[in-house]
Design brief:
Blueprint lengths: L8 H26 L13 H36 L37 H8 L23 H6 L4 H8 L5 H31 L7 H59 L5 H36 L4
């Protein structure tokens, strides 16, 4: 015959039911994540490595979310075992049901639980405010560089513009896919924050009257789950802001390059029928060189921004 549970079994079973519901909600987050996959070419093929990096972080996020779901499932199982008067099968018959050796001893006050949503606010703000982004790319486009926007035929026909036209094509962002992924990540972040908050509420309100080593060990164990779910919520928010930020940076660079090519096309058209041939060649080469230098400056700013972004994502 099993030992009597340390608290009314009905309280333990009701709490287990609440955890079971939270576990199902965590599972549903995984389904949403499957729809939030960032395509490899979403930022253009020049920024494909960043899309791959975001994809890797998403896989890490999914694994953590699944782990917390499994943790809640195990907690539900153990709560029902405790309510039935069963023990956890420890060979040394420790009185502490939940913890490994050394935990649940009461050294940590019951109310001191780590993991609040505000802990991650500063880090999320760095992604939301795009502190990693070069100032020239912080605003979409470049008004000083975009003199003409309607000279597509001339742009294609002007041979010195060809390399820059190719460069602009490699920065072609799929805005619809990026926006859809960002929205899903924002929704996942909000749901994960609510799950963590609801778990905190359950831990504070469901278990009145439960005292002792088992209770302390259980609260300590679940505190790590609360903290972890808040952390994956913050990561989801950062991934959403990352998609928006990288898409904006690539778009700003592309618009700047297109604007420079348009300027080059206008300048070439202006000298095409004037002056001796050698003068035209010198002028053409000078324009092409100057425009290329300016365009490469934007690409350099993009590369430095993405390097800062990788560092912020924890990649060296």
């Amino acid at each position: 015959m099993g030992a009597s549970p340390p608290v009314d079994p009905a309280i333990l079973r009701a709490h287990a039911d609440n955890l079971d519901l939270l576990g199902h909600r965590l599972e549903s987050v995984g389904y949403v994540s499957a729809e939030a996959v960032v395509p490899g070419g979403v930022f253009g093929d020049l920024c494909a490595p960043i899309a791959m990096l975001i994809g890797e972080k998403q896989r890490d996020q999914d694994q953590l979310t699944a782990r917390f779901h499994d943790n809640l499932e195990l907690a539900v199982l153990n709560l029902h075992r405790m309510a039935d008067g069963k023990r956890n099968g420890n060979p040394d018959r420790r009185p502490d049901f939940w913890a490994s050796a050394g935990r649940g001893s009461g050294d940590q006050p019951a109310g001191s639980r780590p993991g609040r949503a505000g802990d991650f606010g500063g880090l999320i703000a760095k992604f939301r405010k795009r502190t990693w982004l070069h100032a020239r790319l912080a605003v979409r486009g470049d008004g000083g560089a975009v003199a003409v926007r309607t000279r597509g035929a001339l742009l294609e026909a002007t041979s010195p513009a060809a390399p820059l036209t190719v460069l602009a094509g490699r920065l072609d962002v799929d805005h619809r896919a990026a926006a859809a992924a960002a929205r899903r990540w924002a929704a996942m972040s909000a749901e994960l924050r609510e799950i963590a908050s609801d778990l905190e509420w359950c831990l504070e309100s469901d278990l009145a009257g439960w005292q002792g080593a088992d209770h302390l060990a259980y609260q300590e164990l679940m505190a790590h789950n609360v903290h972890g779910i808040y952390a994956v919520a913050a990561t989801a928010a950062m991934l959403g802001h990352s998609v928006e930020g990288v898409a904006g940076a690539a778009t700003a660079t592309r618009e700047a390059v297109v604007g420079l090519v348009d300027r080059q096309a206008v300048a070439i058209a202006a000298i095409a029928f004037g002056g001796p041939a050698d003068h035209q060649v010198r002028a053409l080469l000078g324009i092409a060189f100057g425009i290329s230098v300016l365009a490469l400056g934007y690409v350099r700013d993009l590369a430095r921004s993405l390097a800062a972004f990788r560092k912020l994502m924890g990649v060296r």
